[in-house]
Amino acid sequence: MKEIKILHLFPKLLSLYGEYGNVKITEKYLKENGYSVSVTECEFPEEIDLTEFDFFYIGSGTEANMIEASKRLLPKKECIKELVENKKCFLVTGNAIALFGKTVSMNGKDYAMLSTFDYSTGMYTDKRFSGDILTNDKNIFASKLVGYVNTSCVYYGIEGGLCELLLGSDLGNDKRSALDGFTVNNFFATQLIGPFAVKNPQAMKKICEVITGDTLPLDMTSHQGLAYKRALTALEERLTK
User: Fold this and answer.
1) pLDDT tens for each residue of 51-63
2) From CA 91, how far away is CA 188, in angstroms rounded?
3) pTM attached to this predicted model
4) Using CA atoms, how far apart are residues 140 and 84, in angstroms rounded to an integer?
């Protein structure tokens, strides 16, 4: 069985809400299912060969750190686009979504991003959009997703969505529709912050199946599964009030 190579980009620069948990739970789950896993943490991607890796993770950060991350990634712009086209697996959470669009507009200035996809971002320094999230289960994970959004970003031109918001429906990509994130090939993007894969075990399972190409088991009676069910119940109750 081949070694699964995980690249955690910007674990210091972009880990505002404990996003390292997404990498830890992915590594743990893969190892529990018999895979050999290596995790590389990288703050300066220009120094490494991205094509060696099977899974890429990037989390959220401050507005200033997001601009800095874009500068460090721009030399790898064409390589990243090829990786996405070749269906390498990415998970991008929080405002890291902004990195993969065309531009970020902030304080009257436009910053060039990777242009992996054809959307743009408005990033505010005086405005926040935040709240608890519950989605429906009509998504690639076939599961209701739970979590939290806390962002200064509004995204313009994202087509479709990764999921549809039931609770927090005014926190979608453009802050008008209820669609959050997007998926293209094996690139998964969501505004949900923190340990998204820890909170949503079915999403974790699906992502790991994409990484490995195998069908994997999931024990929903585990601590992770039970925590998900408790969160889901609490958020569903809020919908009925």
Assistant:
1) 999 999 999 999 9
2) 5
3) 0.96
4) 17
